[in-house]
Amino acid sequence: MRLIVAEKNISARRIAEILAGGKKMTEKKDAGVSVYTFGDTTAIGLRGHVVEIDFEPGYANWRSETATPRALIDAKTIKVATEKRIVSLLQKLARHADRITIATDFDTEGELIGKEAFELIRAANKNVPVDRARFSAITSQEITAAFSHATDLDFALASAGEARQIVDLVWGASLTRFISLAARRGGQNILSVGRVQSPTLAMIVDREKEIASFVPEKYWQLSLVTMKGDDKVEARHTHGRFRDKAEAELARDRTKDPLVVTDMKEGTKIDRSPSPFDTTTYIVAAARLGYSAANAMRIAEDLYMNGFISYPRTDNTVYPATLDISGILKALKPSPFAKDIEWIQKNRRAVPTRGKKSSTDHPPIHPTAPATRQMLGDDAFPIYELVLRRFLATLAPDATWQTLKVLFNAGGEEYTATGGRLLEPGWHTVYPFSEAKETILPVFRVGENLQILSKSFEEKETQPPARYTQSKLIQRMEELGLGTKSTRHEVIAKLVSRKYVEGNPLRPTLVGRVVIESLEQYADTITKPDMTQTLEAHMQLIKQKQRTREDVVKESREMLHKAFDQLESHERVIGDEIRNRTAEEMTLGACPVCKTGTLAIKHLRGSTQFIGCSHYPDCTFNIGLPLAQWGFAVRTDEVCKKHGLNFVRLVRKGARPWDIGCPLCHHISSNRESLLEIPSLTPDLIDKLESRHIFTASDIAKTESPYLATILDVPADHAQRIIRDAGTAMELLRKRSECRKFMRNHIAPRKGRSYSVIVKSLASAGIRDIPALGKADPAVLRSAGISEKETSDLIDGARAHCAARIFKEIGIPAISIKKYIEAGIFSPEEFCTMQPLQIAEKTGMSPDTVFRHAGLVCKHLNRPAPVKISKTRIEKGKKELLAIRGITEAMIRKLSSAGIHDTETLLSADPRDAATRSGIPEATILNCQALAKKRLDNAVIEL
Ligand SMILES: [Zn+2]
Ligand SMILES: [Zn+2]
To answer: Which of 300, 660, 761, 777 has its CA 20 to 30 A from that of 397?
Structure first.
């Protein structure tokens, strides 16, 4: 069987269809992965990379003492399967294949994906021949040619890709960890740093600084309007921008009739046809049509996979000689562009245009098959049309303009007007995306006198440099050698998702600015493009087999160590700086209680988070928030109209954000419900309390009754009652929240089942705290929507929880409590029903310890403590028992459960009771007792 391995499922299907050549092709699913078969050939698609590199185990803990951020630099890397089903299917098929062709995309990334597949194949089948098909478009011509001229994998090219993968992992992971830990940020809030990402962000930050520090300068411009026949003509002063207002005013005042035509210059200008699309010029052109860089790439890739255009990741702007342009034109003819194609066929330029960059991997982006709007949809069709028309434009003749420049003189001041007329539209005929605006001037005669209709004197200001649009940024990244044609748009998308930049054109956020400025100050190699350019150059050398992957990675690691030398010596300063400067990110607005403090979200170590006042401890106002595991609290831009506070949102990876809204509105409404349960309060009184910023039962409990009586306008005894009731309510609330917390720890969150609803429904059944839960009727829990399994877990958990609490109060250490609970001892009473030796046996603890604990438990229950048996006595007893025929070590362990540890206790035991407790048959016990008695009697006789 011949196996074909394509980069994606969709390309596998297209390739199989093409190679089947009309023969029957079947599609089957194996473990959810499509397998295409025709004749003796099978094709499957990967999902891009099916393995990824990661550090070997032992580096997962960010706070580890040994695996520090710096340790990641030299950590060993391993490959881990990310698409397990595809990997095992590939290996299964490889075992039975007698020839395998790798048909991944033809570029560094594709070669690396191919090499990864190769390694997986080799692990499953040592001998099967593996070759490589390379193509730039999934068309029948290219595919057929590629498969009939299959070559070898280019391991040097793949190595270059691997080097980049390792360097990216190492730089990204170590620096991200370092900066995040220094700034004490974790979870959702980490500060990511990356090899390409950080220099790119630095460009955006630097541009913003230029804009901020830009000082606009005023300038003035002069122009006039005259009339020639029926045509209005505008002429500008030849001085251009006047920096000096007085000078401009003088020129304006000197401008007087008549306006004399002094010169006319006619000429022609060639307007070159555009060059073929590479990835960057394509993204820029697509941006003009309103497509974001990421979107443009996604659509182009889709069109490529479906065979409509060639591979869209290319740096090449020169069509290779082998490209059959006439063939393509012919193939494209049956499409909505038939007329344009026909025009090109008739008017084609001798040689297609060419850009500055020529590489051998892929041709420039060009169409490969005809398509209609119906086939592609409204989103993709304009992109297809753009690519097709660009292709036609590169084959079209240049356009020619006739230009005309007229010079005027008015009172000694010179003015000029320029015009342009399209003589030969050339490529503009087929490419409407760049405007060809004509300005047609009437015919003038030198020496002719005209009248000035109006003069205009405009005051203007110089403008700061523009912010980067996505496509401008991609162009700039390319100029600086940052990233590759395949990754640039992804890097920008990452900066957006990390909340480092926002908007289009792109603006840095506060965090983005602070991180870059800290890095620039302490380790600017990370923010400068130089390092990344060096790596790109080194990758070229790997491709040309002039350097090895190991060598390049080693050099990069050394560079990173140098950066760490600087970073580590300034760790505290960097951390403090980032934290202090980003504090603003967490502030919400003025404190409603003290009015002068500022409320801000606070994150503590662990997952506690709350909103507190900057005047703490003078102002203790605070609002609790759910634990960070339910979402990391961040501020949003929305502001509460009533309270002037920013809204709060909880964000969690992989989950929809939880919008809390105005934290104060939330605080009030969630507490109002429990205040309404306080019998001595009425809604009216609650309103009065709220107006005095008393929102919770605990707020009430803290007030003095005379003050409360005054603000609520109630008698003193009523105020006292309210305070008392609030205390009771707090206790109830504490129990309820403890119960809810307990529930959260024991039953999984599920859609449509809220913990507070469960807690409420249990409360109405009289289950209001954890001890009650431990004694609850399972049926009640089941009717509150808790499953059978969860019910028994919950009850056991509640019993263990209560047991742990009481044992702890008694003074038993946590480690022992755990063992008692595991042995099924849930209360002091249960503890006392058992023999200490039996407990020691069951828990594996030493009898000494158990006796000590038994003393504590009995004291708590006011009972006499059991008599302690010493270790030596136990050893001696054991010897005695072993001497009795038929008693084994195993039996001794069982007997100890019944409190039998020597001949004496054996003889005095009640056989039936001992049998139940030890699990040894009563008959055996009776037999042992008889033997023991006999031994004892004999011993007496011997005496
Ligand atoms: Zn305050
Ligand atoms: Zn509010």
So the answer is: 300
